[in-house]
Structure formats: structure tokens, C-alpha cells
Amino acid sequence: MPEVDLQAHRVRLDVYGIKQCDTCRRALQWLDLRRVPWQFHDFRVAGVQPALLREWLDSDFSSYLVNKRSTTWRNLNGDEKKQALVDPFELLLQHPTLIKRPVFMLDGDLLAVGFSPGDLEDYI
Q1: Which residue of 9, 24, 29, 84 sits 20 to 30 Å from the alpha carbon of 77, by its own alpha carbon?
Q2: How many Cβ atoms sit within 10 Å of the Cβ of residue 45?
Q3: pLDDT grade, residue 121 (50/70/90)?
Q4: d(CA 35, CA 56)
Q5: For residue 38, what are the contacts with CB-CB under 8 A and spacing of at least 6?
Q6: How many Å apart are CA 90 and CA 118, to the nearest integer?
Q7: pLDDT tens digits, one per residue of 49-85
Q8: Which positions ≥6 away from 88 have C-beta within 8 Å?
Q9: Among 49, 28, 47, which Cα is nearest to 38's?
């Protein structure tokens, strides 16, 4: 009987975040335990592509993208915070650490923002 590569038929998630982020680490461990292939994209190393960010902001997840609990958010001045609430595009490009993490994509579609196992269970 020929050997079948089961991993070739599994989904592969693109995970965007920051390598030092505890939530990103937990999410990647969770995926590893379920043997879900993933590729990690570190905002601190590569930033975020403008077209991808615009796509995220045009999605149903747009209200979740600005991480108002981050150190970066706390360090913004009042005008920057107001602008982030109106149109966060430029601010998120300048400060990708403001993006709530991790961000999960599957086959080019935004799947989830932030880590909640229940949000991913149906896809893996």
C-alpha cells in the first residue's frame, strides 16, 4: 500500500504577530499540539504589508485590530488615539505592535484576530 502524506492534506495557517508575544506563543503551541502546519510572520521583523492591512481593516474583524491594551497604545498621545479610532491605517503601519495578535489567515482569508481556540476549531 502506498504511503500517504496526511500533512499535505491539512490546512496551513498564516499567523501574524510578534515572536515575543505570550499569546502568539500559546497559539503556536496550541496549533503544534494539533499538528496544524503554520507559517509565522513577525511584525517586528517584516512589518505589515499595506495591502494586507487594508484588507484586514475592510473586513468584519476591523473593530478588533487595534490593541488598546498594548504598551504602544498607552504611549500614544490623545490625537493619535482619536485618529486610530477614526482610521487606524497609517498608525498601524507605523506601529504594527498596535495590531491585536495573533492574526490568523487561511488561504488568503482572514480567519481570526486574537487567540481563542473556539474560533479556530472549525477550521483545523
Answers
A1: 24
A2: 9
A3: confident
A4: 26
A5: 12, 13, 14, 15, 28, 31
A6: 31
A7: 999 999 999 999 999 999 999 999 999 999 999 999 8
A8: 57, 65, 66, 98
A9: 28
pLDDT in tens, 1-45: 445 444 555 678 999 999 999 999 999 999 999 999 999 999 999
* H/E segment holding residue 112: strand 109-113
Amino acid identity for residue 97 in this structure = T
Task: Let me know if 21 is a catalytic residue.
Answer: yes
What does the block give as the cell for 88? 487606524
84 within 8 A of 76, measured Cβ to Cβ: yes
Collect all residues with Cβ–Cβ distance below 8 Å to 44 and sequence separation of at least 6.
18, 19, 20, 96, 97
Which among 21, 28, 84, 110 is annotated as catalytic? 21
84-88, 101-105, 117-121: the lowest-pLDDT one: 117-121
Q: How far apart are the first and last CA of the chain?
A: 27
Which grid coordinates belong to 113? 484576530
